[in-house]
Design a protein that fits this description.
Elements: H1 11-14, E1 17-18, E2 28-32, E3 38-43, E4 46-51, E5 57-59, E6 67-72, E7 78-83, E8 90-95, E9 101-103, E10 111-116, E11 122-127, E12 139-144, E13 151-152, E14 161-163, E15 169-174, E16 191-196, E17 202-204, E18 212-217, E19 223-228, E20 235-240, E21 246-248, E22 257-262, E23 268-273, E24 276-281, E25 286-290
Antiparallel strand pairs: 1-5, 2-3, 3-4, 4-5, 6-7, 7-8, 8-9, 10-11, 11-12, 12-13, 14-15, 15-16, 16-17, 18-19, 19-20, 20-21, 22-23, 23-24, 24-25
């Protein structure tokens, strides 16, 4: 795989590189590159990239605004992210070959990136743009790189969402509660649903008295990974879509799993837990912390 040109440029173009001891601040919204070799993340309001096995991190953006939640494009040549560069959260795309940044949304309310279309032609994001300021739940929308008015992915409230690799099925969360509300049980606890785009067919996949959220698809579309607090702490689980059988993937106590992301090849899930960044190898089932410098 060709190394994007921006990673070969001098440090003064990248901003600068940092070399510190183990990080001691939570890293926000980590994401694997499609080939599983690099890790993009947000730290102190800018985007960074580092080798997946740990090591020196390089800075990708330098801006007074808050850049966060990076998402690699399927071909690994772009990174979508969310930023308040113009006063509120909008979608942007960083071209790793040219270094150019493209703005995708212009709404006066909050738009936040959540994924890519499988062919890389657009970015999925959550917004209340059709009903602001009446307080409805967020809906998923799509902003195309070629421009034009963003459109709804489907007409059902509920985020976060995950579009299957076939581009036809979407997993989404109804009544999602805040990730930091540990132990919450009530009317706002999230359940995961499955819908088929272009139809009115929806299936409830989880129905527990604890939050289920942050769905991710396997590369073959047969397994749905998600975060659940069903055992007392937020951990990763896997559901076989055909049988609905659920099995645990992690077993953390105390602080739980936050903001998992899966690479395009479906081999690795990265996530935050405590003050660490972790890598879960889906072939071996082993989770290991990643040391960033």
């Amino acid at each position: 795989t060709r190394t994007p040109a921006i990673f070969k440029q001098a440090p003064d173009i990248l901003g600068w590189t940092v070399e510190t001891k183990r990080h001691r601040e939570p890293i926000l919204r980590i994401a694997h590159s499609p080939d599983g070799k690099q890790l993009a993340f947000s730290w102190q309001g800018d985007l960074w990239v580092a080798p997946i096995d740990g090591g020196l991190a390089r800075r990708l953006t330098i801006h007074p605004a808050y850049d966060f939640a990076p998402l690699w494009s399927p071909d690994g040549r772009k990174i979508a992210f969310t930023s308040d560069r113009h006063g509120n959260d909008d979608l942007f795309v960083l071209d790793l070959i040219t270094g150019e940044i493209q703005r995708l949304t212009w709404f006066s309310g909050r738009d936040r990136a959540s994924g890519w279309l499988p062919d890389g032609s657009g970015v999925i994001f959550e917004s209340r743009r059709d009903w602001e300021p009446y307080g409805v739940d967020f809906l998923p929308y799509v902003a195309l790189l070629k421009g034009g008015t963003p459109y709804r992915l489907h007409d059902v409230e509920g985020t976060p969402v995950a579009l299957a690799p076939d581009g036809k099925r979407v997993a989404f969360v109804r009544r999602d509660s805040a990730w930091w509300r540990k132990g919450y049980k009530g009317s706002a606890q999230g359940d995961i649903w499955l819908g088929t785009l272009g139809t009115k067919l929806f299936t409830r996949l989880t129905n527990t008295d604890t939050p289920d959220t942050m769905p991710l698809w396997s590369a073959d579309g047969r397994t749905l990974y998600f975060v659940s607090e069903r055992a007392g702490t937020r951990n990763l689980y896997a559901m076989d879509i055909a049988t609905k059988r659920v099995r645990p993937l992690t077993d953390f106590k105390g602080d739980g799993v936050r903001f998992p992301q899966i690479n395009t090849q479906g081999t690795v899930i990265t996530f935050e837990q405590g003050m660490e960044v972790w890598e879960l190898n889906l072939a071996t089932g082993k989770s290991v912390p990643i040391a960033l410098e």
